[in-house]
Design a protein that fits this description.
Helices cover about 55% and strands about 5% of the residues. The chain has five helices and two strands, in the order H-H-H-H-E-E-H.
Length: about 160
């Protein structure tokens, strides 16, 4: 009996988008949290929200055009969580690096010589428009259209 190899369906790109209420009267961290939820970086009801703090730290650094090492990101997060009376969880170095990689994968953050920053210190609106909407989203939609066309041909 031959052993059959089952290939895994590994996506070339992936994006999750959600629509929430309009951002009215939200504090900075909550605004960033809603963005993370809206872009699939955070799942609804997920208490492991370190990605929110990482993005928030990088947005604050962007104002002064600073780049942060992963260790500096960790320090900023620990201080902010203590000031906000939030539990200091999820701050393991490996977890912070993993979340930074996720932010890099959707083009919000870039790494230059082991330091991280919001992509080119640009506005998130511009990054979303140029890199996610026009590049990533269009590529995903194009491939979905390819599958729709093939299905239409065969069915």
């Amino acid at each position: 009996m031959l052993k059959q190899t089952i290939s895994r369906d590994i996506p070339l790109a992936e994006i999750t988008l959600r629509k929430y209420e309009k951002p009215v009267k939200l504090e900075q961290r909550e605004l960033v949290r809603k963005l993370c939820l809206s872009t699939g970086l955070l799942q609804p009801g997920d208490s492991r929200d370190i990605v929110v703090d990482i993005l928030h730290a990088l947005l604050i650094a962007k104002r002064d055009k600073h780049e942060l090492s992963s260790e500096e990101v960790k320090t900023v997060i620990i201080r902010a969580r203590k000031e906000g009376n939030l539990p200091v969880v999820g701050v393991a170095d490996s977890n912070i690096r993993r979340q930074l990689k996720r932010l890099r994968d959707i083009y919000l953050v870039e790494k230059i010589k082991n330091r991280y920053r919001i992509n080119e210190h640009d506005s998130l609106s511009n990054i979303f428009s140029e890199r996610i909407e026009q590049y990533l989203l269009q590529n995903v939609l194009s491939r979905i259209r390819d599958y729709l066309g093939k299905i239409d041909e065969r069915f």
